[in-house]
Amino acid sequence: MVSRKHPCAIAIALFFAVMFSHAAAYDPLDPNGNITIKWDVMSWTPDGYVAVVTMTNFQMYRHIMTPGWTLGWVWAKKEVIWSMVGAQATEQGDCSKFKGTIPHCCKKNPTIVDLLPGVPYNQQIANCCKGGVVASWGQDSSAAVSSFQVSVGRSGSSNKTVKLPKNFTLLGPGPGYTCSQAKIVPSTVFLTPDSRRKTQALMTWNVTCTYSQLLASQKPTCCVSMSSFYNSTITPCPSCACGCQNKQHCVNATDSKLSSVVALNNRAKSNSPLLQCTQHMCPIRVHWHVKLNYKQFWRVKIAVTNFNYRSNYTQWTLVAEHPNLNNITQVFSFVYKPLVPYTSKNDTGLFYGIKFYNDVLVAAGPDGNLQSELILTKDEETFTFKEGWAFPRKIYFNGDECMMPPPDSYPFLPNSAHRNLLSLPKLVLIFSLLAVLAFS
Ligand SMILES: *[C@@H]1O[C@H](CO)[C@@H](O)[C@H](O)[C@H]1NC(C)=O
Ligand SMILES: *[C@@H]1O[C@H](CO)[C@@H](O)[C@H](O)[C@H]1NC(C)=O
Ligand SMILES: *[C@@H]1O[C@H](CO)[C@@H](O)[C@H](O)[C@H]1NC(C)=O
Ligand SMILES: *[C@@H]1O[C@H](CO)[C@@H](O)[C@H](O)[C@H]1NC(C)=O
Ligand SMILES: *[C@@H]1O[C@H](CO)[C@@H](O)[C@H](O)[C@H]1NC(C)=O
Ligand SMILES: *[C@@H]1O[C@H](CO)[C@@H](O)[C@H](O)[C@H]1NC(C)=O
Ligand SMILES: *[C@@H]1O[C@H](CO)[C@@H](O)[C@H](O)[C@H]1NC(C)=O
Ligand SMILES: *[C@@H]1O[C@H](CO)[C@@H](O)[C@H](O)[C@H]1NC(C)=O
Ligand SMILES: *[C@@H]1O[C@H](CO)[C@@H](O)[C@H](O)[C@H]1NC(C)=O
Protein backbone atom coordinates (compact mmCIF):
# COMPACT_ATOMS: atom_id res chain seq x y z
CA MET A 1 0.00 0.00 0.00
CA VAL A 2 2.59 2.43 -1.13
CA SER A 3 -0.01 5.03 -1.94
CA ARG A 4 -1.19 5.18 1.69
CA LYS A 5 2.26 5.40 3.16
CA HIS A 6 3.78 7.96 0.84
CA PRO A 7 1.04 10.09 -0.66
CA CYS A 8 3.40 13.04 -0.51
CA ALA A 9 6.18 11.31 -2.41
CA ILE A 10 3.69 10.35 -5.07
CA ALA A 11 2.39 13.89 -5.27
CA ILE A 12 5.96 15.15 -5.66
CA ALA A 13 6.71 12.59 -8.35
CA LEU A 14 3.54 13.64 -10.13
CA PHE A 15 4.48 17.30 -9.96
CA PHE A 16 7.92 16.51 -11.35
CA ALA A 17 6.32 14.55 -14.17
CA VAL A 18 4.13 17.58 -14.94
CA MET A 19 7.12 19.96 -14.71
CA PHE A 20 9.24 17.95 -17.08
CA SER A 21 6.51 17.19 -19.56
CA HIS A 22 5.98 20.95 -19.73
CA ALA A 23 9.71 21.39 -20.10
CA ALA A 24 9.55 19.22 -23.21
CA ALA A 25 8.51 22.06 -25.48
CA TYR A 26 4.89 22.44 -24.41
CA ASP A 27 3.83 25.86 -23.27
CA PRO A 28 0.35 25.86 -21.68
CA LEU A 29 -0.12 29.56 -22.44
CA ASP A 30 0.71 29.04 -26.13
CA PRO A 31 -0.10 25.40 -26.88
CA ASN A 32 0.16 25.81 -30.67
CA GLY A 33 3.27 27.99 -30.67
CA ASN A 34 6.00 26.95 -33.12
CA ILE A 35 8.23 28.23 -35.87
CA THR A 36 7.47 26.59 -39.22
CA ILE A 37 10.10 26.49 -41.96
CA LYS A 38 8.56 25.86 -45.36
CA TRP A 39 10.53 25.05 -48.53
CA ASP A 40 8.69 25.73 -51.79
CA VAL A 41 10.44 24.44 -54.90
CA MET A 42 9.66 27.16 -57.47
CA SER A 43 11.57 25.80 -60.47
CA TRP A 44 13.81 22.93 -61.58
CA THR A 45 17.31 23.68 -62.89
CA PRO A 46 19.55 21.35 -64.96
CA ASP A 47 21.11 19.87 -61.82
CA GLY A 48 18.71 20.87 -59.05
CA TYR A 49 16.08 23.37 -57.99
CA VAL A 50 15.38 26.89 -56.80
CA ALA A 51 13.42 27.03 -53.54
CA VAL A 52 11.96 29.85 -51.48
CA VAL A 53 12.41 29.10 -47.78
CA THR A 54 9.89 30.83 -45.50
CA MET A 55 10.17 30.87 -41.75
CA THR A 56 6.93 31.79 -39.96
CA ASN A 57 6.89 32.47 -36.24
CA PHE A 58 3.49 31.26 -35.03
CA GLN A 59 4.46 31.79 -31.39
CA MET A 60 2.16 34.33 -29.78
CA TYR A 61 4.78 36.09 -27.63
CA ARG A 62 8.27 34.76 -28.35
CA HIS A 63 10.14 36.73 -31.00
CA ILE A 64 13.65 36.43 -32.41
CA MET A 65 15.70 39.40 -31.25
CA THR A 66 18.99 40.76 -32.62
CA PRO A 67 21.44 39.30 -33.60
CA GLY A 68 18.74 37.20 -35.26
CA TRP A 69 18.22 33.60 -36.35
CA THR A 70 20.76 31.07 -37.54
CA LEU A 71 19.43 28.12 -39.52
CA GLY A 72 21.34 24.93 -40.23
CA TRP A 73 20.69 21.56 -41.88
CA VAL A 74 22.55 18.56 -43.28
CA TRP A 75 22.23 17.71 -46.99
CA ALA A 76 20.96 14.20 -47.69
CA LYS A 77 23.24 13.71 -50.72
CA LYS A 78 26.13 15.73 -52.16
CA GLU A 79 24.13 18.92 -52.77
CA VAL A 80 25.74 22.35 -53.06
CA ILE A 81 24.25 25.85 -52.87
CA TRP A 82 24.92 27.65 -56.16
CA SER A 83 23.54 30.97 -54.95
CA MET A 84 21.28 32.61 -52.40
CA VAL A 85 19.10 35.72 -52.35
CA GLY A 86 18.07 37.39 -49.09
CA ALA A 87 20.38 35.35 -46.86
CA GLN A 88 23.85 33.84 -46.92
CA ALA A 89 25.81 30.82 -45.75
CA THR A 90 28.32 31.83 -43.09
CA GLU A 91 31.05 29.59 -44.60
CA GLN A 92 31.74 28.60 -48.17
CA GLY A 93 33.50 25.34 -47.33
CA ASP A 94 35.68 23.35 -49.75
CA CYS A 95 34.62 24.03 -53.35
CA SER A 96 37.99 22.97 -54.82
CA LYS A 97 36.34 20.32 -57.04
CA PHE A 98 34.52 22.98 -59.06
CA LYS A 99 35.87 24.55 -62.23
CA GLY A 100 34.31 27.65 -63.74
CA THR A 101 31.40 28.80 -61.62
CA ILE A 102 32.15 28.37 -57.92
CA PRO A 103 29.16 27.57 -55.66
CA HIS A 104 28.12 29.86 -52.81
CA CYS A 105 28.52 27.01 -50.32
CA CYS A 106 29.83 23.44 -50.59
CA LYS A 107 29.44 22.42 -46.98
CA LYS A 108 27.54 19.26 -46.08
CA ASN A 109 25.97 21.17 -43.16
CA PRO A 110 25.48 24.79 -44.25
CA THR A 111 24.75 27.50 -41.67
CA ILE A 112 22.51 30.30 -42.95
CA VAL A 113 21.99 33.82 -41.58
CA ASP A 114 19.77 36.65 -42.76
CA LEU A 115 21.22 39.68 -44.54
CA LEU A 116 21.22 43.07 -42.86
CA PRO A 117 18.71 45.76 -43.78
CA GLY A 118 19.87 48.01 -46.60
CA VAL A 119 21.54 45.42 -48.86
CA PRO A 120 21.29 46.16 -52.61
CA TYR A 121 17.88 45.42 -54.14
CA ASN A 122 19.25 42.64 -56.36
CA GLN A 123 20.13 40.66 -53.20
CA GLN A 124 16.66 41.00 -51.66
CA ILE A 125 13.39 39.08 -51.83
CA ALA A 126 10.13 39.76 -49.96
CA ASN A 127 10.41 39.39 -46.15
CA CYS A 128 14.21 39.13 -46.18
CA CYS A 129 17.05 41.19 -44.89
CA LYS A 130 15.89 42.10 -41.41
CA GLY A 131 19.09 41.04 -39.65
CA GLY A 132 17.30 37.83 -38.65
CA VAL A 133 14.79 39.66 -36.44
CA VAL A 134 11.33 38.06 -36.49
CA ALA A 135 8.36 39.42 -34.51
CA SER A 136 6.04 37.18 -32.53
CA TRP A 137 2.67 36.35 -34.08
CA GLY A 138 0.75 38.06 -31.26
CA GLN A 139 2.71 41.28 -31.56
CA ASP A 140 2.87 41.73 -35.34
CA SER A 141 1.92 38.83 -37.59
CA SER A 142 3.02 40.77 -40.70
CA ALA A 143 6.59 40.94 -39.35
CA ALA A 144 6.55 37.32 -38.08
CA VAL A 145 7.88 36.00 -41.41
CA SER A 146 11.42 35.75 -42.75
CA SER A 147 12.28 34.42 -46.24
CA PHE A 148 15.19 33.68 -48.52
CA GLN A 149 15.78 31.97 -51.84
CA VAL A 150 18.26 29.18 -52.37
CA SER A 151 19.46 27.64 -55.63
CA VAL A 152 20.52 24.04 -55.01
CA GLY A 153 22.70 21.91 -57.29
CA ARG A 154 23.55 18.20 -57.54
CA SER A 155 20.20 17.24 -56.02
CA GLY A 156 18.49 15.87 -59.11
CA SER A 157 15.63 17.82 -60.63
CA SER A 158 12.41 15.93 -60.14
CA ASN A 159 10.34 15.17 -57.09
CA LYS A 160 11.65 11.58 -57.24
CA THR A 161 15.35 12.44 -57.04
CA VAL A 162 15.25 15.32 -54.58
CA LYS A 163 16.01 14.13 -51.06
CA LEU A 164 14.86 16.37 -48.21
CA PRO A 165 17.56 18.06 -46.11
CA LYS A 166 17.98 16.54 -42.65
CA ASN A 167 18.74 17.52 -39.06
CA PHE A 168 17.48 21.10 -39.06
CA THR A 169 18.78 23.35 -36.29
CA LEU A 170 17.53 26.81 -35.38
CA LEU A 171 19.11 29.35 -33.05
CA GLY A 172 16.77 32.17 -32.17
CA PRO A 173 19.30 33.75 -31.48
CA GLY A 174 20.33 31.41 -28.63
CA PRO A 175 19.56 27.71 -28.09
CA GLY A 176 16.09 26.46 -27.09
CA TYR A 177 14.56 25.27 -30.38
CA THR A 178 14.22 21.64 -31.46
CA CYS A 179 13.22 21.01 -35.07
CA SER A 180 11.24 18.12 -36.51
CA GLN A 181 12.20 16.18 -39.63
CA ALA A 182 11.22 17.72 -42.93
CA LYS A 183 7.91 16.38 -44.21
CA ILE A 184 6.42 16.62 -47.70
CA VAL A 185 3.15 18.59 -47.49
CA PRO A 186 0.59 19.62 -50.12
CA SER A 187 2.20 22.12 -52.49
CA THR A 188 1.69 25.76 -51.54
CA VAL A 189 -0.76 27.61 -53.77
CA PHE A 190 0.14 31.21 -54.64
CA LEU A 191 -2.31 33.84 -55.79
CA THR A 192 -1.15 36.41 -58.35
CA PRO A 193 -1.27 40.02 -57.07
CA ASP A 194 -4.50 40.69 -59.00
CA SER A 195 -6.03 37.51 -57.45
CA ARG A 196 -7.03 36.29 -60.92
CA ARG A 197 -4.67 33.34 -61.25
CA LYS A 198 -3.34 30.63 -58.95
CA THR A 199 0.07 29.03 -59.31
CA GLN A 200 1.59 26.36 -57.16
CA ALA A 201 4.98 25.21 -55.91
CA LEU A 202 6.45 22.16 -57.70
CA MET A 203 7.08 20.52 -54.34
CA THR A 204 6.76 21.71 -50.72
CA TRP A 205 8.13 20.43 -47.43
CA ASN A 206 7.77 21.74 -43.88
CA VAL A 207 9.87 21.60 -40.74
CA THR A 208 8.43 22.59 -37.34
CA CYS A 209 10.62 23.94 -34.54
CA THR A 210 9.40 24.23 -30.95
CA TYR A 211 10.91 26.05 -28.00
CA SER A 212 11.81 24.72 -24.57
CA GLN A 213 12.94 27.12 -21.87
CA LEU A 214 14.98 24.41 -20.16
CA LEU A 215 16.96 23.87 -23.37
CA ALA A 216 17.51 27.62 -23.66
CA SER A 217 18.98 28.10 -20.21
CA GLN A 218 19.18 26.08 -17.04
CA LYS A 219 18.24 29.07 -14.89
CA PRO A 220 15.33 31.49 -15.23
CA THR A 221 16.17 34.83 -16.85
CA CYS A 222 13.66 37.01 -15.04
CA CYS A 223 11.90 37.24 -11.71
CA VAL A 224 8.86 38.86 -10.14
CA SER A 225 8.66 41.14 -7.10
CA MET A 226 5.47 42.47 -5.47
CA SER A 227 4.03 45.18 -3.29
CA SER A 228 0.62 46.62 -2.38
CA PHE A 229 -1.05 49.69 -0.92
CA TYR A 230 -2.37 47.63 2.00
CA ASN A 231 0.95 46.35 3.30
CA SER A 232 4.24 48.25 3.36
CA THR A 233 6.31 45.09 2.90
CA ILE A 234 7.91 44.73 -0.51
CA THR A 235 8.23 41.10 -1.51
CA PRO A 236 11.51 40.89 -3.42
CA CYS A 237 12.50 38.45 -6.13
CA PRO A 238 13.65 35.15 -4.63
CA SER A 239 17.36 35.22 -3.73
CA CYS A 240 19.55 33.60 -6.36
CA ALA A 241 16.48 33.30 -8.64
CA CYS A 242 18.72 33.41 -11.71
CA GLY A 243 22.14 32.92 -10.15
CA CYS A 244 24.15 33.87 -7.09
CA GLN A 245 26.47 36.86 -6.73
CA ASN A 246 29.39 34.89 -5.34
CA LYS A 247 29.42 32.62 -8.40
CA GLN A 248 28.86 35.15 -11.16
CA HIS A 249 30.70 38.28 -12.20
CA CYS A 250 28.58 41.43 -11.84
CA VAL A 251 28.89 45.21 -11.70
CA ASN A 252 28.17 47.14 -8.53
CA ALA A 253 25.67 49.89 -9.45
CA THR A 254 26.89 52.10 -6.57
CA ASP A 255 30.43 51.97 -7.95
CA SER A 256 31.55 55.52 -8.76
CA LYS A 257 33.54 54.23 -11.74
CA LEU A 258 30.46 52.42 -13.08
CA SER A 259 30.43 53.90 -16.59
CA SER A 260 34.10 53.15 -17.22
CA VAL A 261 33.72 49.59 -15.89
CA VAL A 262 30.74 49.02 -18.21
CA ALA A 263 32.49 50.61 -21.20
CA LEU A 264 35.59 48.48 -20.58
CA ASN A 265 33.54 45.31 -20.24
CA ASN A 266 31.50 46.12 -23.33
CA ARG A 267 34.64 46.57 -25.37
CA ALA A 268 35.45 42.95 -24.52
CA LYS A 269 32.55 42.20 -26.93
CA SER A 270 31.32 39.14 -25.16
CA ASN A 271 27.80 37.88 -25.83
CA SER A 272 27.18 36.89 -22.23
CA PRO A 273 25.20 39.40 -20.17
CA LEU A 274 26.96 41.92 -17.94
CA LEU A 275 24.66 42.19 -14.94
CA GLN A 276 24.22 44.71 -12.23
CA CYS A 277 24.80 43.03 -8.84
CA THR A 278 21.45 42.11 -7.25
CA GLN A 279 20.40 39.43 -4.79
CA HIS A 280 18.45 37.70 -7.59
CA MET A 281 21.00 38.15 -10.43
CA CYS A 282 18.27 38.22 -13.08
CA PRO A 283 18.68 40.37 -16.19
CA ILE A 284 14.98 41.32 -15.93
CA ARG A 285 12.75 42.03 -12.94
CA VAL A 286 8.98 42.54 -13.26
CA HIS A 287 7.37 44.35 -10.34
CA TRP A 288 3.60 44.05 -9.75
CA HIS A 289 2.19 46.72 -7.42
CA VAL A 290 -1.44 46.66 -6.31
CA LYS A 291 -1.84 50.42 -6.26
CA LEU A 292 -5.39 51.50 -5.59
CA ASN A 293 -8.80 50.18 -4.63
CA TYR A 294 -11.86 51.89 -6.07
CA LYS A 295 -15.46 50.86 -5.54
CA GLN A 296 -15.86 49.06 -8.86
CA PHE A 297 -12.28 48.94 -10.04
CA TRP A 298 -8.77 48.29 -8.82
CA ARG A 299 -5.50 49.54 -10.18
CA VAL A 300 -2.19 47.75 -10.76
CA LYS A 301 1.19 49.22 -11.67
CA ILE A 302 3.67 47.08 -13.59
CA ALA A 303 7.34 48.05 -13.78
CA VAL A 304 9.94 46.17 -15.81
CA THR A 305 13.60 46.76 -14.97
CA ASN A 306 16.63 45.75 -17.05
CA PHE A 307 19.74 44.81 -15.06
CA ASN A 308 21.76 43.80 -18.12
CA TYR A 309 24.29 46.40 -19.32
CA ARG A 310 24.75 44.50 -22.61
CA SER A 311 21.22 44.24 -23.94
CA ASN A 312 18.63 46.64 -25.32
CA TYR A 313 15.52 44.46 -25.48
CA THR A 314 13.86 45.44 -28.76
CA GLN A 315 10.21 44.47 -29.42
CA TRP A 316 10.01 43.07 -25.88
CA THR A 317 6.88 41.21 -24.78
CA LEU A 318 5.35 40.60 -21.38
CA VAL A 319 2.71 37.97 -20.68
CA ALA A 320 0.66 37.92 -17.49
CA GLU A 321 -1.85 35.39 -16.22
CA HIS A 322 -4.43 36.69 -13.76
CA PRO A 323 -8.12 35.74 -13.46
CA ASN A 324 -9.24 39.38 -13.63
CA LEU A 325 -7.64 40.02 -17.03
CA ASN A 326 -10.98 38.96 -18.53
CA ASN A 327 -12.23 42.34 -17.41
CA ILE A 328 -9.33 44.69 -18.03
CA THR A 329 -10.77 48.17 -18.53
CA GLN A 330 -7.80 50.35 -19.36
CA VAL A 331 -4.06 49.90 -19.98
CA PHE A 332 -1.72 52.88 -19.95
CA SER A 333 1.56 53.16 -21.93
CA PHE A 334 1.61 49.55 -23.20
CA VAL A 335 -0.38 47.78 -25.91
CA TYR A 336 -2.58 44.99 -24.56
CA LYS A 337 -3.98 41.95 -26.35
CA PRO A 338 -5.86 39.11 -24.67
CA LEU A 339 -4.39 35.68 -25.41
CA VAL A 340 -7.02 33.01 -25.37
CA PRO A 341 -5.21 29.67 -25.52
CA TYR A 342 -8.35 27.78 -24.49
CA THR A 343 -11.67 29.38 -25.29
CA SER A 344 -13.01 28.59 -21.83
CA LYS A 345 -10.29 30.66 -20.15
CA ASN A 346 -9.61 34.36 -20.70
CA ASP A 347 -7.07 35.05 -17.99
CA THR A 348 -3.90 35.63 -20.00
CA GLY A 349 -2.77 38.73 -21.82
CA LEU A 350 0.13 40.02 -23.88
CA PHE A 351 1.66 43.43 -23.22
CA TYR A 352 4.19 45.13 -25.47
CA GLY A 353 5.59 48.59 -26.16
CA ILE A 354 4.19 51.27 -28.41
CA LYS A 355 6.29 51.60 -31.57
CA PHE A 356 8.93 54.36 -31.42
CA TYR A 357 7.83 55.22 -27.85
CA ASN A 358 8.65 52.38 -25.50
CA ASP A 359 9.13 49.29 -27.69
CA VAL A 360 12.79 49.11 -26.60
CA LEU A 361 13.75 48.32 -23.02
CA VAL A 362 17.18 49.94 -23.00
CA ALA A 363 20.23 48.50 -21.25
CA ALA A 364 20.66 48.75 -17.46
CA GLY A 365 21.07 52.24 -16.08
CA PRO A 366 18.85 55.22 -15.37
CA ASP A 367 16.66 54.60 -18.46
CA GLY A 368 16.58 50.80 -18.24
CA ASN A 369 12.99 50.50 -17.06
CA LEU A 370 9.40 50.70 -18.32
CA GLN A 371 6.09 51.21 -16.56
CA SER A 372 2.41 50.75 -17.15
CA GLU A 373 -0.78 50.91 -15.12
CA LEU A 374 -3.91 48.79 -15.53
CA ILE A 375 -7.44 49.36 -14.38
CA LEU A 376 -9.49 46.21 -13.86
CA THR A 377 -13.21 45.90 -13.21
CA LYS A 378 -14.01 43.93 -10.08
CA ASP A 379 -16.09 40.83 -10.43
CA GLU A 380 -18.08 40.74 -7.17
CA GLU A 381 -17.96 36.97 -7.03
CA THR A 382 -14.23 36.42 -7.29
CA PHE A 383 -12.54 39.69 -6.36
CA THR A 384 -10.54 39.76 -3.11
CA PHE A 385 -7.29 41.20 -1.77
CA LYS A 386 -6.91 38.12 0.42
CA GLU A 387 -4.49 35.27 -0.07
CA GLY A 388 -2.50 36.97 -2.77
CA TRP A 389 -5.39 36.81 -5.24
CA ALA A 390 -4.47 40.26 -6.60
CA PHE A 391 -1.04 39.05 -7.72
CA PRO A 392 -0.34 37.36 -11.05
CA ARG A 393 -0.29 33.58 -11.41
CA LYS A 394 2.44 33.66 -14.05
CA ILE A 395 4.63 36.26 -15.75
CA TYR A 396 6.69 35.74 -18.92
CA PHE A 397 9.20 38.21 -20.33
CA ASN A 398 10.18 37.69 -24.00
CA GLY A 399 8.63 34.22 -23.85
CA ASP A 400 10.54 32.98 -20.82
CA GLU A 401 8.72 32.29 -17.59
CA CYS A 402 9.80 34.46 -14.65
CA MET A 403 10.54 33.11 -11.18
CA MET A 404 7.81 34.08 -8.70
CA PRO A 405 8.33 34.62 -4.96
CA PRO A 406 6.97 31.78 -2.76
CA PRO A 407 3.22 32.39 -2.11
CA ASP A 408 3.66 32.60 1.68
CA SER A 409 5.83 35.68 1.23
CA TYR A 410 3.25 37.68 -0.78
CA PRO A 411 2.19 40.93 0.90
CA PHE A 412 -0.97 40.10 2.83
CA LEU A 413 -3.88 42.02 4.23
CA PRO A 414 -3.46 43.00 7.88
CA ASN A 415 -5.47 40.65 10.12
CA SER A 416 -6.26 38.28 7.32
CA ALA A 417 -6.18 34.66 8.31
CA HIS A 418 -3.05 33.99 6.35
CA ARG A 419 -2.27 30.81 8.27
CA ASN A 420 -5.49 29.25 6.99
CA LEU A 421 -4.14 29.03 3.52
CA LEU A 422 -6.58 27.20 1.32
CA SER A 423 -5.47 24.00 -0.25
CA LEU A 424 -5.03 25.72 -3.61
CA PRO A 425 -2.37 28.21 -2.45
CA LYS A 426 -0.66 25.29 -0.70
CA LEU A 427 -0.53 23.40 -3.95
CA VAL A 428 0.82 26.51 -5.60
CA LEU A 429 3.49 26.68 -2.88
CA ILE A 430 4.54 23.07 -3.43
CA PHE A 431 4.59 23.70 -7.12
CA SER A 432 6.84 26.73 -6.90
CA LEU A 433 9.20 24.97 -4.51
CA LEU A 434 9.50 22.20 -7.05
CA ALA A 435 10.07 24.78 -9.75
CA VAL A 436 12.91 26.19 -7.63
CA LEU A 437 14.38 22.69 -7.34
CA ALA A 438 13.98 22.01 -11.01
CA PHE A 439 15.69 25.25 -11.97
CA SER A 440 18.55 25.09 -9.47
C1 LIG B 1 2.42 25.05 -35.69
O1 LIG B 1 1.63 26.21 -35.42
C2 LIG B 1 0.50 26.35 -36.26
C3 LIG B 1 -0.16 27.67 -35.90
O2 LIG B 1 -0.43 27.74 -34.54
C4 LIG B 1 -0.44 25.16 -36.07
O3 LIG B 1 -1.53 25.29 -36.95
C5 LIG B 1 0.32 23.88 -36.36
O4 LIG B 1 -0.50 22.79 -36.08
C6 LIG B 1 1.58 23.80 -35.51
N1 LIG B 1 2.35 22.64 -35.93
C7 LIG B 1 2.74 21.72 -35.06
C8 LIG B 1 3.50 20.57 -35.63
O5 LIG B 1 2.54 21.83 -33.86
C1 LIG C 1 3.50 24.26 -43.64
O1 LIG C 1 3.89 25.58 -43.21
C2 LIG C 1 2.99 26.62 -43.53
C3 LIG C 1 3.55 27.89 -42.95
O2 LIG C 1 4.69 28.29 -43.60
C4 LIG C 1 1.62 26.35 -42.94
O3 LIG C 1 0.72 27.37 -43.36
C5 LIG C 1 1.12 24.99 -43.40
O4 LIG C 1 -0.09 24.75 -42.73
C6 LIG C 1 2.14 23.92 -43.04
N1 LIG C 1 1.66 22.66 -43.53
C7 LIG C 1 1.55 21.59 -42.75
C8 LIG C 1 0.98 20.37 -43.37
O5 LIG C 1 1.93 21.60 -41.57
C1 LIG D 1 5.82 13.69 -57.91
O1 LIG D 1 5.08 14.23 -58.97
C2 LIG D 1 4.14 13.34 -59.51
C3 LIG D 1 3.52 13.98 -60.72
O2 LIG D 1 3.13 15.30 -60.45
C4 LIG D 1 3.10 13.00 -58.43
O3 LIG D 1 2.13 12.10 -58.93
C5 LIG D 1 3.81 12.38 -57.24
O4 LIG D 1 2.90 12.15 -56.19
C6 LIG D 1 4.91 13.30 -56.76
N1 LIG D 1 5.69 12.62 -55.74
C7 LIG D 1 6.07 13.22 -54.61
C8 LIG D 1 6.90 12.39 -53.68
O5 LIG D 1 5.75 14.36 -54.36
C1 LIG E 1 21.20 13.66 -37.63
O1 LIG E 1 20.89 13.60 -36.24
C2 LIG E 1 20.83 12.29 -35.74
C3 LIG E 1 20.33 12.35 -34.32
O2 LIG E 1 20.75 13.52 -33.68
C4 LIG E 1 22.20 11.66 -35.84
O3 LIG E 1 22.15 10.34 -35.35
C5 LIG E 1 22.62 11.65 -37.30
O4 LIG E 1 23.93 11.15 -37.40
C6 LIG E 1 22.56 13.04 -37.89
N1 LIG E 1 22.76 12.92 -39.31
C7 LIG E 1 23.69 13.62 -39.94
C8 LIG E 1 23.78 13.35 -41.42
O5 LIG E 1 24.41 14.43 -39.37
C1 LIG F 1 28.96 47.86 -3.78
O1 LIG F 1 29.44 49.14 -3.42
C2 LIG F 1 29.03 49.54 -2.10
C3 LIG F 1 29.56 50.95 -1.88
O2 LIG F 1 30.78 51.15 -2.53
C4 LIG F 1 29.62 48.56 -1.07
O3 LIG F 1 29.18 48.92 0.23
C5 LIG F 1 29.11 47.16 -1.41
O4 LIG F 1 29.68 46.22 -0.53
C6 LIG F 1 29.49 46.79 -2.83
N1 LIG F 1 28.88 45.50 -3.15
C7 LIG F 1 29.52 44.58 -3.85
C8 LIG F 1 28.76 43.32 -4.11
O5 LIG F 1 30.66 44.74 -4.26
C1 LIG G 1 21.31 50.46 -26.81
O1 LIG G 1 20.75 51.49 -27.60
C2 LIG G 1 21.38 52.74 -27.44
C3 LIG G 1 20.60 53.77 -28.21
O2 LIG G 1 20.15 53.28 -29.44
C4 LIG G 1 22.83 52.63 -27.94
O3 LIG G 1 23.50 53.86 -27.78
C5 LIG G 1 23.53 51.56 -27.10
O4 LIG G 1 24.85 51.35 -27.60
C6 LIG G 1 22.78 50.24 -27.16
N1 LIG G 1 23.39 49.35 -26.18
C7 LIG G 1 23.61 48.06 -26.43
C8 LIG G 1 24.22 47.27 -25.34
O5 LIG G 1 23.36 47.55 -27.53
C1 LIG H 1 -11.20 38.48 -23.04
O1 LIG H 1 -11.13 39.66 -22.22
C2 LIG H 1 -10.93 40.87 -22.94
C3 LIG H 1 -10.81 41.99 -21.94
O2 LIG H 1 -9.68 41.83 -21.17
C4 LIG H 1 -12.08 41.10 -23.89
O3 LIG H 1 -11.86 42.27 -24.64
C5 LIG H 1 -12.18 39.90 -24.83
O4 LIG H 1 -13.33 40.06 -25.65
C6 LIG H 1 -12.34 38.60 -24.04
N1 LIG H 1 -12.30 37.49 -24.97
C7 LIG H 1 -13.03 36.39 -24.82
C8 LIG H 1 -12.91 35.34 -25.86
O5 LIG H 1 -13.76 36.24 -23.87
C1 LIG I 1 -16.84 42.62 -16.41
O1 LIG I 1 -17.39 43.24 -15.26
C2 LIG I 1 -18.70 43.75 -15.44
C3 LIG I 1 -19.07 44.46 -14.16
O2 LIG I 1 -18.91 43.60 -13.06
C4 LIG I 1 -19.63 42.59 -15.76
O3 LIG I 1 -20.94 43.09 -16.01
C5 LIG I 1 -19.13 41.87 -16.99
O4 LIG I 1 -19.92 40.73 -17.24
C6 LIG I 1 -17.69 41.43 -16.78
N1 LIG I 1 -17.19 40.84 -17.99
C7 LIG I 1 -16.60 39.64 -18.01
C8 LIG I 1 -16.10 39.17 -19.34
O5 LIG I 1 -16.46 38.96 -17.01
C1 LIG J 1 2.60 42.28 5.23
O1 LIG J 1 2.90 41.06 4.59
C2 LIG J 1 3.97 40.34 5.19
C3 LIG J 1 4.18 39.08 4.38
O2 LIG J 1 4.71 39.37 3.14
C4 LIG J 1 3.65 40.03 6.64
O3 LIG J 1 4.78 39.40 7.22
C5 LIG J 1 3.30 41.30 7.39
O4 LIG J 1 2.87 40.97 8.68
C6 LIG J 1 2.19 42.03 6.69
N1 LIG J 1 1.96 43.31 7.34
C7 LIG J 1 0.85 43.60 7.99
C8 LIG J 1 0.75 44.95 8.59
O5 LIG J 1 -0.05 42.77 8.03
TrEMBL record:
It is a lipid-anchor; GPI-anchor. Keywords: Glycoprotein, GPI-anchor, Lipoprotein, Membrane, Signal. InterPro entries: COB_C, COBRA_pln. GO terms for biological process: cellulose microfibril organization; plant-type cell wall cellulose biosynthetic process. GO terms for cellular component: plasma membrane; side of membrane. The keyword rRNA-binding does not apply. Its main location: membrane. Residues 221-411 form the COBRA C-terminal domain. It is found in: Cell membrane. Pfam families: COB_C (PF25079), COBRA (PF04833). Residues 1-25 form the signal peptide. Belongs to the COBRA family. This is COBRA-like protein. The lineage of its organism: Eukaryota, Viridiplantae, Streptophyta, Embryophyta, Tracheophyta.
